[in-house]
Design goal:
323 residues; mainly alpha; 0% strand; elongated; SpoIIM-like; membrane; transmembrane
Length: 323
């Protein structure tokens, strides 16, 4: 490969790595610090290739400067696996979500606008409920959250709390997987599933208000809704990040850009998966239990406040790299 082609293929990576180094040197948090450390290894490899192929002195000096700056952070002993997991949970994951705030708002609006529309439409006209939910869906709402619905009957359908938890893990992971995999269709699949779930859940909520008991519904969902809904939106962010890699490769080859986008999406995929797991745990072992409604509302409100604080504050001021 000739030097100009080598530069064209990798310069975008070098520029992004240099920007991350500037943040590290200010001792701020980089959302994808683990990915940045992998990029450092690639830059070292590029420097070795440039020297071996006897590329120009200017290119070799540029790469050498990046490697020298990066070695101050990435050549230190790494933390144990347990410490890396702890770092990811307390700093890396929330910092990644903050860094991708544009994708968060896109994902949220694509879900929330259809949700509000469908809830209002079904609340005003039952024909919309039949069109969106179908007869079976409307019957399901009335069976679970109707004015005469019995919580014990609802729980009894799953035989045990464990079976309820397993069902919700499967159901929510399926939705999150659709969000992420939809990114491979240039993000169009992700946008479709966000919109579809917004319309369906909005119609579901609207029909609860139309023919069911809203208190039964909200007291059930309030406990796990923060983890489940935000986890779904973050899975949507991961799918959109993959889609952006396909649509906007920049100076990288499309395959390289897709691989790079997938690496940047990994923290969001891992994080949303954990959120889905714990949401299903709460749903199976708390939400459907015979607990005072006031206790469920207090616990659910506290969950939302803690989650907002986590994503806004966790990891700020910490050094970006796990040590």
């Amino acid at each position: 490969m000739k030097e100009p082609e080598f530069i064209d293929e990798h310069s975008a990576m070098w520029e992004r790595f240099e920007e991350d180094l500037k943040v590290l040197e200010k001792r701020s948090v980089v959302g994808d610090a683990v990915m940045t450390s992998r990029t450092f290894s690639q830059v070292c490899h590029h420097l070795a290739l440039a020297r071996h192929r006897m590329y120009g002195a200017e290119l070799c000096e540029r790469l050498n400067a990046l490697v020298s700056r990066g070695s101050r952070f990435f050549s230190k002993p790494r933390r144990s696996s347990a410490a890396e997991v702890w770092y990811f949970l307390t700093a890396g994951f929330p910092a990644t979500v903050r860094k991708e705030w544009r994708l968060f708002w896109i994902s949220t609006l694509v879900f929330l606008i259809p949700f509000v529309w469908a809830a209002l439409a079904v609340g005003n006209d039952s024909e919309w409920a039949h069109a969106i939910l179908g007869a079976d869906g409307m019957e399901s709402v009335e069976k679970m959250y109707g004015k005469g619905a019995d919580l014990e009957t609802f729980r009894g359908e799953f035989d045990s709390n464990f079976m309820m938890w397993a069902f919700y893990v499967w159901n929510n992971v399926r939705i999150d997987f659709q969000m992420v995999a939809g990114g491979l269709l240039a993000g169009v699949g992700t946008l479709f599933f966000l919109l579809f779930n917004g319309v369906f859940l909005g119609a579901f909520t609207g029909w609860v208000h139309q023919s069911g008991d809203p208190q039964k519904f909200y007291s059930f969902v309030v406990g796990h809704s923060s983890l489940e809904m935000v986890g779904m939106l973050i899975a949507g962010m991961a799918g959109l990040r993959i889609g952006c890699g396909i649509l906007f490769p920049g100076r990288l080859r499309r395959g390289v850009a897709l691989a790079d986008a997938a690496k940047r999406a990994l923290p969001m995929i891992y994080g949303s998966g954990l959120m889905t797991f714990f949401a299903a745990f709460i749903e199976g072992f708390w939400s459907a239990q015979d607990v005072p409604v006031s206790a469920k509302y207090w616990a659910g409100g506290a969950g939302w406040l803690l989650l907002v604080a986590y994503f806004l504050l966790a990891g700020r001021g910490k050094e970006a790299l796990p040590r």
